[in-house]
Amino acid sequence: MWENQCHAGKGQQVLVEIGFWICLGLVIYIYAGYPMAVFLLARFINRDVRKADIEPKVTVLIAAFNEEREIERMVLNKLSQDYPSGCLEVIVISDGSTDRTDAIVEDLARRYEGRLRFQRQEPRQGKTQALNKAVILATGDILVFADANSIYSPDAIRRLVRGFADPSVGYVTGQMIYMSPDGFGIAEGSGAYMRYENLLRILETRLNSIVGVDGGIDAVRRELYVPMRPDQLPDFVLPLSVVEQHKRVVYEPEALLYEPALSVAADEFRMRVRVSLRALWALQDKRSLLNPFHYPLFAWQLLSHKVLRYGAFIPLIGVLVCNGLVVGNHPLYLGFFVMQFAFYTCAALGHLLSRLPAVPSKMLAPYYFFLLNVACAVALWKFINRQKMVLWKPRVGN
Question: Taking 80 as the threshold, does the pLDDT of residue 283 lie above it?
């Protein structure tokens, strides 16, 4: 009997060890293996975007809610782009704003008659529905989506539209640069994460299509725009709709968007939960893109970059738990456990340091990584419980 119990104990230990290596392999694949695979494949399947200096008619669409502090500066920034004024129009839709947003835009519309139009959405229905209505009014061949608190570089729109000279391209997204004038740590952490994402987008563009965009500096061919439900996330659903229409979604790193970073970790966490939750619903809506028989390359990209990424907290927990159960079996397991303990200690320390000025992003990376994965876990719980988010508040930076 004792011998049977010993064998059973050893068998359980073996299963735990196998579980550890499977979870560790998944974590490595999600954050390093997939980017490396994209890099290698792109060397053989190099689909460079054929860019040219073209000047199609462009409509910039802005959905705004209570943006009285930023709206004038932001609208003027778009109207003053290095682009022919006769080929550029701006449409602002106020989503039931209760501050001075409407009055400010109406005054600007009188000053820039013919180039700027204003509409009000009442009652408030959210950003997605506002964009659906704005598209109906647009006259441009290219639609550009801008946030109400973001500033473009002077040549951002010109840089964006260059990619549409390639007939295979249906959607172009630019590069978001977080501004952190006060130097708060959480902003540094988000900046480090964006640098990782942008590198991956460069590689994905060379291979095929990118999987996700940030929103705020995105352009799409008007004929490819598909009206969305109010609960759908435009930054995720629309690019996937373009892929469904067999057009590419590509990244243009020279089209720059400057946006204030969130300085408070709690604000960043809430934003990440909201974005992750809406992305999970978008994945469900567009699950046909995960069919490898219809979209062999993109299905793999979507699974690796989004589905597994949003669920990465599961193998991360598995690595920690399994490692703890076999820590005494071999010095290798002890070494892994010490590294994990050190990493999560740094994450906890990062929480304490995140409000301090001028904290190097490398010191905040473990904390931001932890925050992102906890946000994904919370979002998945909300998704399982069928929760949705339609309305939004202005993104407050420093």
Answer: yes
DSSP characters over 333-352: HHHHHHHHHHHHHHHHHHHH
Is 200 within 8 Å of 36 (Cβ atoms)?
A: no
Cα-only R_g, the chain = 23
Q: Minimal CA–CA distance to 63: which of 110, 18, 126, 123? A: 126
- Which tens digits make up the pLDDT trace of 321-365? 999 999 988 899 999 999 999 999 988 887 777 666 555 555 677
Compute CA distances 305 → 37, 195, 313, 314, whole Å.
12, 15, 14, 15
| Residue 137 dihedral angles phi and psi, to the nearest 5° | -85, -20
Q: How many CA atoms lie within 13 A of 20 on its CB side?
A: 21
Alpha-helical runs (H) found in 29-80: 34-44, 71-79
Residue 112 and residue 76: Cα distance in Å, rounded?
Answer: 10
CA dist 240 and 179 (Å) reads 28
Tokens of 312: 């990465």
Centroid of chain to Cα 200: 12
Half-sphere exposure (CA, 13 Å, Cβ side) for 12?
6
Mean of pLDDT over the chain: 87
The whole model's pTM is what?
0.88
Neighbouring-strand partners of residue 179:
260
Q: What is the mean pLDDT of residues 19-40?
A: 96
Q: Where are the alpha helices (DSSP H) in 253-295?
A: 265-285
